Amino acid sequence: MANVGPSFGLSREVQSKIDKKYDSELEERLVEWIAVQCGPGVGRPEPAKTGFQNWLKNGCVLSELINSLYPTNKPIKSIKTSGMAFKQMEQISMFLKAAENYGVTKTDIFQTVDLFEGKDMAAVQRTLMALGNLAVTKSDGCYKGDPSWFHRKAQENRRDFSEEQLTEGKNVIGLQMGTNRGASQAGMTGYGLPRQIINNP
Question: Of 21, 83, 187, 200, whose CB count within 10 A is highest?
Answer without folding.
Answer: 21
